[in-house]
Amino acid sequence: MCADTASSRRLRVWATTARSVNGLGCRAFLFLAVAHTLCPLLTAQALPLRLRETLTTHLKASERQLKTVEGGGIVAYSVDTGAADEVMLVGISRIWATPEAFVRGYTNITKFESAPGVIAGSKFSVPPRESDLTGLSFSKKEVDELKSCKPGDCSFKIGDAGLRFLKNTVNWNSPDYVEQATKALRLLWFQYLTRYQLTGNEGLATYHDSAEQFSVEQGLIELLAKTSALQEYAPQLSEYLRQYPKSEDKATEEFFYWQVGEFGLKPVHRITHVVIQRTPASWGEAYVIASKMLFASHYFRSALEIRCLIPGQDQHIGGMHYLITVQRSQVDGMTGLRGRFLRGVAVRRARQAMERYIASAKENVERDFNLTRQPGPQVAPLR
Questions:
Q1: Per mean pLDDT, which range of 187-191, 278-282, 369-373 is the poorest?
Q2: Which DSSP string do the residues of 23-56 spell out, in sequence order?
Q3: Residue 1 above 70 pLDDT?
C-alpha cells in the first residue's frame, strides 16, 4: 500500500471493518486492491499550469522537485544569482488549509516564529512605543564590542550617526554601562523605526562597520528589482515596498516586529516590516507576504523574503494552498577563497533551516485550521 498517510490509515480501517462484518476476506482484499490503485491519486496533486511555469522559469525548480511537491513533499533549494555576496533560497510546499488560515497564524508573528533558535522577539504596537522593546537585551560581550567600535571598524552593523549617539549617551566608565548601552540601543531602534515610517527607505541606515559603507536602501532596491516572482503575482506590492509610505497602493495588512535569533557565532538582532497583499487567483484569494528587513546587527546587509500563498483547486475538501517562499539576502564574508568555502556551509545550513521552518509552519497551520473549522466532517491532511 502507499505511504502511511491519514487517508491510507483510514482505508486500512475500512478494509478491516469490511472483513469483520462480512466475514469475507476476498471482499477486503478487493477493497485494498482498489485503495492501492487510488492512493497515489489521493496524495498526488498536479500543480496549476501557471504556477508550474513560474516555478520553473523564475525560480529554477527542477522537474524532480516539482514532482516532490505534487506528491506532498517539501523542497528547499538554493539558486545561483551570479552575485558572490548574494544568497537566494526557494522553498515550496502544499498546505492543507486555506491561505486565510496561514495569514491568521502569521500575523501572530511572535507565536508563529516561536522555535528553537529564536531568543526573543515582539510585534510593535500601532503606533510603535519605546516600551515595545522592553524584551530586547544585549550581553556584556556584545556591549563591549560596541564600546570598541569606530567608523569603518566595528563588529556590529551600525552607521556613523548611531555610533555618535552611543558615544554621547553612554558613560562607558560607569559600572552600569551595559544597562545604559541597552537602553540607548532600544531608543536608537525606536527612533530608527519611527523615522522609517515617516520617510521610507531613505530613512534606512548606511552601515559603516567596514571600510566600505553600505546603504540598506540601495541593497533593498537591488533585491526588489531581482524578485521576479513578486512581479508575477503582486506587482503593486513591489511598488508599495519601494515607495512606502508614499505609495498610492494600499496593503491588505502590515505590521512591524523585532527579533533576536541564533545565527552563526553571534545572535542577530533585526527589525522587519511585513506587508500582506491579497490578490485574486483561479480558485480563490491568493496572498503575498513580503518581509523587508530594515536592520540586522550582524552578517546580513539587506534581506527580502516573499511568501506566496496560492490557493489550489481542491477547495471542496476544506481548503488547500501552495506555499512558495523566496529569500534573497546580501551577506558578509561570501567573497574570496575563504568566502567560497564559507558560502557552501552557510547555504547548506540555511536551506536545511528553511525546510525545517516550512515543515513546522505546515504542521501548525494545518492543525490550527482543523481545530477552528466549522463543525462537520474533518479532513485529515494528505501528505
A1: 278-282
A2: --HHHHHHHHHHHHHHHHHHH--PPPHHHHHHHH
A3: no
Domain boundaries, the chain: 6-43, 49-372
Task: Indicate whether 351 pLDDT > 50.
Answer: yes
Give the span between the Cα atoms of 188 and 146, in whole angstroms: 14
Residue 321 near residue 310 (C-beta atoms within 8 A): yes
C-alpha distance from residue 45 to each of 54, 61, 75, 330, 381 (Å):
17, 17, 15, 35, 13
Does the reported pTM lie above 0.90? Answer: no
Arithmetic mean of pLDDT over the chain: 84
Q: How far apart (Å, rounded) are the C-alpha atoms in residues 119 and 259?
A: 8
Compute the distance between CA of residue 120 and CA of residue 190 in angstroms, rounded to an integer. 17
Q: What length is written for the chain?
A: 383
The percentage of the chain sitting over the pLDDT mark of 90, rounded to a whole number, equals: 61
Peptide bond into 127 cis (omega under 30): yes
For residues 308 and 66, give the distance between their C-alpha atoms in angstroms, rounded to a whole number: 16
Cβ–Cβ under 8 Å, residues 207 and 216: yes
Mean pLDDT of 252-277: 92
CA distance 42 to 27: 21
* Helix or strand holding residue 14 (H, E): helix 6-22
User: Which residues are within 8 A (CB) of 297 and not within 5 positions of it... i.e. 6 or more apart?
Assistant: 156, 157, 266, 267, 268, 269, 270
Chain center to CA of 277: 15
Q: What is the per-residue pLDDT for 345?
A: 82
**Of the candidate ranges 209-213, 242-246, 336-340, 379-383, the one whose mean pLDDT is the lowest:** 379-383
Residue type, 81: T
Q: How confident is the model at residue 60 (pLDDT cuts 50, 70, 90)?
A: very high
d(CA 259, CA 133): 10
Strand pairing class (284-296; 214-215)? unpaired
Contact 120, 137 (CB under 8 A): yes
How far is Cα 293 from Cα 244, in angstroms, rounded to an integer?
14
Q: How far apart are CA 18 and CA 176, in angstroms?
A: 75
Beta bridge partners of 238: none
